[in-house]
Amino acid sequence: MTLSWTLGCSLLAMAAATSLRVRSLYSATDCSGTPYEEQKFVQNTCMQWGSDYVTYTCNSTTAVSNWYTDAACTTYRDNFPITYADVGVCADGVKSTCGDGTFAVVAQYSDSACTTKTMDRNMLVECWASGTATTPASQKTSFGDILTHSTYTSSDCTGTAATTTEMGSCGNCTSVPGVGYVMWACTASTSLASPMKLHLLTGMIGFVFLVLNF
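Request: output the structure for the sequence above.
Response:
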């Protein structure tokens, strides 16, 4: 899975709860045990998936994926424009569920000065499993004045982080090929005179646009 994300606001976005669709993969075909990979999608948010775009909705019985050809998620693609999955039902080690998650509201920009905003997105700021059936792994994104991405050798972000990478900090605008540009302001403890601008790295499993609430 390749997702992309960008974040920004005139002020630093506050964390909030939102509804998620979660697609969990298990090593056991009956979905017993702990999932080795979790794909977490914020509902009703347009995200990029490969060459297509998608929005997700989820209720107590059905998880729906709506597939589009444009970044605004207005034009359905020709092949399989809408797909469905039964919520809470295991199918060959894969199960879809609905739940709450923590996210930050961000804005995506189309120019290197972060002046032309294209859309708002939600970025998940919590742990997700990102391993394989034989090797546990997980990731977690945290941000404030400094945005960090950490990886773990456990499936639930417990233990000491294997790696922690500083993705950026307030006051900078950076381009990452294939992703775009982002902007957010420093927190009240620092100067708000200049908005902080940054373009975030994407293409990592679990980066929920993230990729911004790609």
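DSSP finds one helix and 14 strands in the chain.
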